[in-house]
Amino acid sequence: MQATAAQKQSIHMNVPKPIKEEMVQWATGDISKISTNDLDFDQANRIIEKFGKQPHKPTFYAKFDKKNHRHKYILSLCMQYGWLKGSGIYGRIADLDKLNEWMHSAKCPVKKALMKMDNNELSKVIAALEKMILKHNLKPVKK
To answer: Of all helices (H) and strands (E), which one includes residue 19?
Structure first.
């Protein structure tokens, strides 16, 4: 995931111009990269943290509609995969933070928030999660 406009702005505001290019090279590990446009999300956060500022959080893609059956099925798939967390009222629920992290990764076929996806895009996400569960369940048990 590329660095966001807000991250780039934070770097430009908080990092002295002569040092900015060196910080980009440090974060990327590549001396040929000198622009904040060359940074990914995590690299930009490393620079921001280095200058004592709060790291940015990725956009929350995992917000869902509890009335949408496909969204509820995605939550079910998360639980089947083991993405669970405790909830005082409901017991164990799907871990939306893990789902959000996955949705921002290269493993997710659609780079959009759940609420903005059409049925075709939701089907792609569901298929990817189902494949992950199948692969996870086919692993041999270690003794």
So the answer is: helix 17-28
Greatest Cα-to-Cα distance within the chain, rounded to the nearest angstrom: 56
Structure tokens at 58: 């990725």
Domains of the chain, by residue range, sit at: 5-50, 69-138
Beta carbons of 99 and 83 less than 8 angstroms apart: yes
Q: CA torsion sign, 113 to 101 to 56 to 62?
A: positive
Residues 6+ apart with CB under 8 A from 141: none
The string of pLDDT tens digits covering residues 48-98 is 999 889 888 878 899 999 999 999 999 999 999 999 999 888 899 999 989
Measured CA to CA, the distance from residue 68 to residue 30 in angstroms comes to 45
Both tokens assigned to 30: 């590549």
Q: What is the pTM of this model?
A: 0.66
Q: Are the C-beta atoms of residues 41 and 1 closer than 8 Å to each other?
A: yes
What are 18-48's pLDDT values in tens digits? 899 999 999 999 999 989 999 988 899 999 9
